[in-house]
Amino acid sequence: MEADIDRVLISRQQIAQRVRELAEQITGRYRQCPGGLVIVSILSGAIIFLADLIRQLPLPMKIGLVGVSSYPGCNTTSQGPELLRQLRVDIRNRHVLVVDDILDSGRTLRYVLDELRQAGPASLSVCVLLQKPGKFPPDLAPDFVGFDIDDVFVVGYGLDYDDQYRNYPDIAVLKRELYAAADKAKTAGA
Ligand code: IMP
Ligand code: MG
Predict the structure, then answer these.
(1) What is the DSSP secondary-structure string of 77-116?
(2) Helix axes 12-30, 47-54, angle to 10 degrees
(3) Which atom, in ligand 1's list, is nearest to the CA of 45?
(4) Is the CB of 77 inside a 6 Å radius of any atom of ligand 1?
(5) Tens digits of pLDDT across the chain (190 residues)
(6) Given this model, what pLDDT does residue 190 score?
(7) Atom from ligand 1 closest to the CA of residue 128
(8) Separation between Cα atoms, residue 44 and residue 121, nearest integer Å
(9) Are 91 and 119 in contact (CB under 8 A)?
(10) Residue 69 main-chain phi, psi, to 5 deg
(11) From ligand 1's centre to the CA of 80, what distance in Å?
């Protein structure tokens, strides 16, 4: 895995520090919420961020998971969101915080928020670990953000390329030839 990495963009220590800060902000916002919080997270990229974040939130909560795929296989551009797993937690009149790994084009988040709104939550907020500023519409700006990053395709800390590298502990950029090989194969119809 190490041999495939071009450079580390955000180290595990920086991530851990920022997750602590986000947890404090979120705790401050929801401490007084009657009935607690429902965290809705988007599989699969958010799994590691979710696991680290929720263990630092001393709040009553339920966790719900939705499955959305936007970048199937060797894709580094969004192919449009597709719902793979529905939410199984009732969010009517509950305070909902959506937790996701990265906000890129915003298509995934828009799709998930539209679905959740139909279920009548008391409030709906968003926390993302990473965002690529300028790539998503301004009305999607999240309430809580870990880091701004440039428009590069990143892996690690839950984020994948072709379902690999999710277990890499830092957020990193792969060597260019790995993406290039997949792009070439796609163009050739492989
Ligand atoms: P969007 O719909 O373009 O905003 O993309 C949202 C989803 O695509 C994210 O939740 C990720 O799961 C995935 N994604 C977007 N950018 C990246 C990236 O740079 N690396 C890995 N996955 C990404
Ligand atoms: Mg995701």
Answers:
(1) S----EEEE---S--TTSEEEEEEEEESSSHHHHHHHHHH
(2) 60
(3) 12
(4) no
(5) 899 999 999 999 999 999 999 999 999 999 988 777 999 999 989 999 999 999 999 999 999 999 987 766 666 666 678 888 889 999 999 999 999 999 999 999 999 999 999 999 999 999 999 999 999 999 999 999 999 999 999 999 999 998 999 999 999 999 988 887 766 665 554 4
(6) 43
(7) 10
(8) 23
(9) yes
(10) -115, 130
(11) 11
Ligand 1 atom closest to Cα of residue 104: 4
Ligand showing the shortest atom-to-Cα distance for residue 104: 1
| Torsion angle of C-alpha atoms 43, 49, 54, 55, degrees rounded to 10 | 130
The Å distance, Cα 190 to ligand 2 centre, comes to: 25
Exposed / middle / buried, residue 39 (Cβ in 10 Å: 0-12, 13-18, 19+):
buried
Q: Which of 116, 144, 133 is nearest to 56 (CA)?
A: 144
Q: What distances in angstroms separate CA 98 from CA 4, 73, 145, 189, one per listed residue?
A: 31, 25, 12, 36
Instruction: Give 65 Cα–ligand 1 centroid separation in angstroms.
Output: 17
> Ligand 1 pocket, 168 CB below 6 A?
no
The protein residue whose alpha carbon is closest to atom 15 in ligand 1 is: 104
